[in-house]
Amino acid sequence: MSKSIPKIPPNLQILKLTFLFIGTGLSMFLGAMIVGAWLIPDLVELSTVRTPKGWFLAHLLLLGWATMVAMGASFQLTQVIMRTTLFSKMLGYIQFVLHVAGVIGLMLGFYTHIALIIVGGVSVTIAGILYVYNLLMTCRKRKEWNVFVLGVSLSLGSYLLTIFLGIAMGMQAALGTNAHMYEATFHSHLWFGIAGWLSGLIIVYSLKLLPMFYVSTKKVTTSGYWIIGLYHVGVLLHVISIWSEMQWLAHIATGCMVVGLSLFISYIFAVRKYRRGRLPIGTVKVAFYLLPMMFVLFIAWSIAKLLPKGIPNLTEGLIVTIILGWFSASILSYLFKIIPFLWWPHRYQTKEQRKSAVLLYEMLPGNRMTIELIGYLVGIVLVVSGFILENSILALVGQLIAVCFVVIYLMELQKVFRY
């Protein structure tokens, strides 16, 4: 009688695909941080990021770094949340090739010809459609509706709108469409990309990841629907206010987002309060405290926008804080847990191997890496201060500090693979 072939767990079935996305994203992040040492001082002197250099750096960080890692991690997290397997690995690989090609096309296009921007944008768009289809079909396999499906679906919708609006911007620039339409498209692109897509994804996955990492008894209830719903309604109303020029609608949008985020902050502190585990959680504490800090910054920004003269470079400073501070530090923080979680079952597959296996929390030096991540954030604070104060030297010093700590942090992170 032949021996039955052991079933490969879902997380191991797509391990190569996941690490392909995460590894490429980390490489692009490191490249963006190094290149930023040359580009950021110039952007500070120009007092704007709306230049080819700014577009280059922003898209390398958002499409190349944050989105690549989000895609790779979401394949695994969707399997865990929905308790199923990814719909299609092949689609994932095709999407990877198209997305990387599109990002490279965009990068070259910002310095050469607008046609490359359009070609790169189309490639990214096709990749995005494949990604959304793959995830939605994965969720459909379970035919289950919950707060995570809602949150991920809304974030995916924002992602598609972001890339469609990006294509529209390229066509408007090529055709010389009136400035008002271009500005409305640009600001909608920012709201859907930064607030709807990446911020929304961090929020919805934090609802699941933080209780797991803290080993907390606090679970998502119906409040999760209010958190996700109010937040995304606020994003959508902000975009509508841009096109309709109804300022009062923007105030309602901000109110929706503030209420939703208030519920979210209350939830994460309840997660920590009802923690059962006492094992060290490492750099996750950085991601935890960044959430209320960004909430306070969002409120401060919203109030400052109401001032008659406003504050120069405030919005640029907030965007840099979100991308380099919140997005990047949160992703690095969560990877501290995600990478060992994926690698450990691959490295130790049999019962015999697991008896003498290293424990998950022992695979990385949590306390040291937490200090390194805080050091990175100190550098980013100096970069943002440089933007607001229009001091290019301060911004350069901050960027160099951030680069040094990123290199050290990534060197620590790869120690997982020594086992």
TrEMBL record:
Domain of life: Bacteria
Cross-referenced Gene3D superfamilies: Cytochrome c oxidase-like, subunit I domain (1.20.210.10)
Residues passing through the membrane, by range: 20-40, 55-78, 90-108, 114-133, 145-170, 190-211, 223-243, 249-270, 282-303, 323-344, 369-387, 393-411
Signal peptide extent: none
Protein keywords: Membrane, Transmembrane, Transmembrane helix
Key word Cell wall biogenesis/degradation present: no
Full protein name: Cbb3-type cytochrome c oxidase subunit I
Organism: Lederbergia graminis
Lineage per the UniProt record: Bacteria, Bacillati, Bacillota, Bacilli, Bacillales
